[in-house]
Amino acid sequence: MEFAVALPAVVLVLVTLAAGVVLVDRVGSMQAAAGAAARALGRGDQAAADRLVREGAPGTVATVRHADGTVCVDLVGRTGGPLSAVPLTATGCAAEAGR
Questions:
Q1: Potential cystine with 79: which of 26, 48, 57, 67 (Cβ 3.0-4.6 Å)?
Q2: What is the C-alpha separation between 71 and 68, in angstroms, rounded?
Q3: Residue 73: helix, strand or coil by DSSP?
């Protein structure tokens, strides 16, 4: 295969791999923020939960669910780059009101 044909293919593979790493990192950050926010809400600290989502997973939309003595925080967001069309979700749940 000629170098001029192989180089763009190699670059495409490297860009896709780098975008995948960014995507996985973003999901990990969202998961950590959702869990921390759920624990804060379980303690009744709405301000801390808002701050944790805002700082830990900027640009995401948070939804809070209460059910059976637990509080869950669902985060939905996206990442930039070539994989920006992929929706990212994370959920964290904690016991509510010290139960």
A1: 26
A2: 8
A3: strand
50: exposed, middle or buried (C-beta count within 10 Å: 0-12, 13-18, 19+)?
middle
Write the pLDDT tens digit of every residue in 74-99: 999 988 777 788 899 999 999 987 65
* DSSP-assigned beta bridge partners for residue 76: 61, 89
Whether the Cβ atoms of residue 41 and residue 92 lie closer than 8 Å to each other: no
CA 31, 35, 41, 47 torsion-angle sign:
negative
- The CA-CA-CA angle for residues 31, 34, 38, to 5°, reads 140
Mean pLDDT by 10 residues, the chain (99 residues): 83 90 92 96 94 93 93 92 86 85
Structure tokens at 12: 């495409």
Q: Which residue is listed with tokens 């495409």?
A: 12
Answer whether 22's CB lies under 8 Å from 84's CB: no
What's the CA gap between 46 and 54, in Å, rounded?
Answer: 12
* Average pLDDT taken over every residue of the chain: 91
